[in-house]
Amino acid sequence: MDRTTIEDAIFPDCPIRNILARLCDKWSLLVLYTLNKAGKEPIRFKELQREIPDISQKMLTVTLRTLEEDGYVTRTIYPEVPPRVEYALTERAYSLLPRINALIAWALENRDPIMKDRKAFIGKSRN
Amino acid sequence: MDRTTIEDAIFPDCPIRNILARLCDKWSLLVLYTLNKAGKEPIRFKELQREIPDISQKMLTVTLRTLEEDGYVTRTIYPEVPPRVEYALTERAYSLLPRINALIAWALENRDPIMKDRKAFIGKSRN
DNA sequence: AGCAATAGTTACATTTTAGTAAGTATCTGA
DNA sequence: TCAGATACTTACTAAAATGTAACTATTGCT
Hints:
Arc Repressor Mutant, subunit A; DNA-binding; 127 residues
């Protein structure tokens, strides 16, 4: 659970290094996006797994814990059997999500030309 | 130079996995931000290094190449001695940057409460 | 008694990413 | 002749992130 990664001593206040770097891993954006897509209703662990079928149980746990740590999601445990744990987005997440969605929309709009450039670059670098 | 990372076979069209994932590494956002900060004038390799003092030469090269590959920066070599290589942002980068800057601004605004939550979480998890 | 269900944890292995240090090329100026 | 400048590349190492598989707990159901 030690995801201190890029908390550099040189730039302890840099918002990129401190805040954004933690969202920049393999799963965080995807989990936030998926929770948001589900609407305002909280969503269970298992359901999240179904939505992101290639995430491992461990990484879903780790990702959710990190998001909780930074206050993007809440975790509510219902002491039932079998256990029920629900995850919901916080106000902080809702204030961030428009920015993330703008980024996703941009990525979608620009995906094809980017992919083209990416492929073309192979030839270029072999020159 | 094989940064295919999260190009998952399951979701080959996902903009998060394909486009954003490549910007989500330790240095890409910082390099884009730094190039942008410098204004519209191109900037030399060495100068970028001075602006981001803790990036290694190798990672600056790798990061710039990936950004070039996806069409965010151009690389212009001037055959002088000592060599001069200038990097500049493309139109694509300029269309992306407002979104990134919005994210950075959000991160800056929310940094203090997030850091607070992050610290408080330690105690919570030991309960 | 034994299995199913959910939401984990843990130890371990693998993969990916990043850092280090040395080497390359070329010309200039002391 | 030899250091200095720039922009790299390369081989190697270290560290971090992620994946895998097994294990935990509890209760209801058959």
